[in-house]
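Appendix B, record 7
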Amino acid sequence: MTERKGPVDSTRSRHARWRTLPLTSVQLDGGFWADRQAVNRRSSLVHAYRMLKAAGNFHNLRVAAGRANGDYRGRNFLDSDVYKWLEAVAYELAKAPDATLRQMAEEAIDLIAAAQTPDGYLNTYVQIVTPDSRFSDLDHGHELYCAGHLFQAAVAYHRATGSPALLDVATRFADYIDGIFGPGKRPGTDGHPEVEMALVELYRETGEARYLKLAQFFVDERGKGKMRGLGWYGPEYHQDRVPVRQATEIEGHAVRALYLMAGVTDLYLETGEQALLDAANRLWRDMTGGKLHLTGGAGARYEGESFGAPYELPSDQCYCETCAAIASIQWNWRMLLATGEARFADLLEQTLYNGFLSGVAADGEHFFYINPLLSRGGYERAAWYEVACCPPNIMRTVASVEHYLATTDASGVQVHLYSPASVSATLESGERVALRLETQYPWQGHVALTIVETGAQPWTLRLRIPGWQEAASIRVNGQAANTAARAGTYALIVRAWQPGDRVELDLPMPPQLLEAHPQIDATRASAAIRRGPLVYCLEQRDQDPDVDIFSVQIDARAPLEAAWNPDLLGGMMVVNACGHALDMNGWAGHLYRPLGAVEGLPRRPVQLRAVPYFAWANRGARAMRVWIPRAADRDSR
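Structure tokens (predicted):
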């Protein structure tokens, strides 16, 4: 059986700073993410199978395969939802056998193989609706986008099970595409980037260099200004306004932009072309410097599901699509592999726990497409969507989250995320090492790491010190470690390890208030609560009945208090704060008044209760806010 690798295999990538581990080399041993994987496996994947049937995805495959009659159902990119779901199933099968999941997957793979045309082409919308118009609408047709998700699913299923059935379909389609597009052939690329990183991973799995060259071609085709925009958006919507190597700002449709940058970074990992990494760094700094929400959410505008101008970060009308959060995780992971810089792991974690995880309900069967930072009520997760890109995307990310936990390089092992887990790795020296992590992260910041297996030669253990952490400490076998533990870096411990050696990392997690850049209008004079990696929010249901969260201010001078609530969605850390409830009676009947007409609104002290942002709207579609107006100094005395 082929080695059970994860979504990205950088083990032979010549320009990777760090090497990914096989998926089964990291096993979650209970805790936060293991609980969510259990829900994903038990509920989400079976739910998605039912939804894919009901929405027509499997129907379209049967019609294209000649096994059913009828019209095409749904949007033209429905095939991609099946592929993302299959990828999620693959990662679960890599962990443990499951006869039900395996049967569902093989039924789907059989349909996909039957739907493929003799020459290798595969897209049910085109085959059923417009059979004579292959690749006639690159701007909006999503043919290569769907192909990319097929390639990723095929690689995942091959790695997880050893079955070549879906990989054979994928390589036949990739060969067909390669026969059409490329230097000296047809120009153009898909309006929705995705195929670029998928082709690179297909190259990593098969060793077929043509796939890497094709990925390079599709990246090089961007920036020619030929694509039709959407509404009042121009070619930037499709990432076609400026060539990648010349780009200086992140713009346009957020998911497309971030998928493209993941593919660009993949190309750097294989080719070492510095211009690609330089462009990725420029766009990353542009995004994080003025175009990213506190949750890691990307995409400020409903119009075009796009990035906005610098500091255009509304709380209520932001888009923050769940798929954009996933694309950001994928891009930051590749940037981390390329550079070894902790800033990318920091943003990956910030997005994973907040802007991504808010996209799925605690039951695993309801989902957010859009993730606002403020809601006046009535907004709730749906069981499925007409455009259902997010639910199966969530499933494949949850199913493979251990992939982001640790890596290796020539010197040793790096730990990026903290979760109860067992980690095994073979170092470049051939030495085998094994570690065990024990922690209640993200609720508590104590991490204990025990060396289970090691050789006699010294090697380096790197532990990420999160950027939000200013007081980390490390002990080795009970003694203070002789290493720096600075925020936003990796602490290095070099020694000849012995089985039983114990490293303890303490990451104090006092809740704190954050403020945003003064040029962000939506959050001016407001504060948000963060504890450890988690962003918190006020939900109306958690406040006293006479406290309206849109008529409160938070007292920035009063201490915040963290408290464990065992009854909240299986147990969560909440944060209590002091604030003021404002009496709005002076504004009754008035929407606007002359400045100063109402001075010194009456107010009374209240207690505010905040919950993790990812958990909001699990107990009803009540009002919610992340950013809370701050009481003026005179009001906080």
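Remarks on this record: The chain has three domains: 19-403, 407-506, 512-636. The two ends are 68 Å apart (CA to CA).
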